[in-house]
Write a structure and sequence with these properties.
The protein has about 250 residues and is α/β, with parallel strands linked by helices. About 40% of the residues lie in helices and about 15% in strands.
Length: about 250
Amino acid sequence: MNATVRTLLDLALPRECGGCGAVGTLWCPRCEDTVCSAVERVSPRLDPGVPCWALGPYSGARRSAVLELKERNRHDVAVPLGRALAHAVGQLRILGEIDPPELSRLVLVPAPTRARAARVRGGDHVERCVRATAAELGQEVVRIPSVLRMRRGVRDSVGLSASERQANVAGRIELALSRSATSAGRRHRGRTEVGDVAARVGIPRERTVLLVDDVLTTGATATESVSVLKNSGVRVDGVLVVAAVR
């Protein structure tokens, strides 16, 4: 896009920071510093059985950015959020929480999103953030297997209590397998577990696997997702989110 077109677009639709609303930029340096601060360990009410980390609390620039991305279709906000998540991955490696790339390649599994919500938003906003994260880690090979999906019947979780959120997703998150993987699983069923990793999801055991989501509220989605992956033979090393509700 040339400068003239960009200027005309800015006059018609002024650019605003996705984190604080400042006019004239899509993402300001202040929000960059805020969101790319130190990653922190969090403990959701429902324990998924693996470590959980967040970029910070669900407030300020983090909350605004998530809302801009998922409620207002600001797809461009996925880029700075992906950059922040990539920074968090680096911090976790420095702290020794996850293995460095030379010891274990990274697998980022997007947490599942309701199909209807994804259609309204013009795509899966979580997967969009994950792909932006992988782009920031461009010097290494990062796998992004979108192997989780929500079945029909899952409601919007806004306003639900912890127990209601748990009941809302219980048994309603499953593996989204390709036809080839499903066929392989059937062929091997007589001599291997149904949850055979290679046949079912193709994530080798020696990889570092992180489940990635936008917001960790009660831990219901994370717990169910980790359980589904675990039952399929995938060892999940942790959950990484943009923000956590306290």
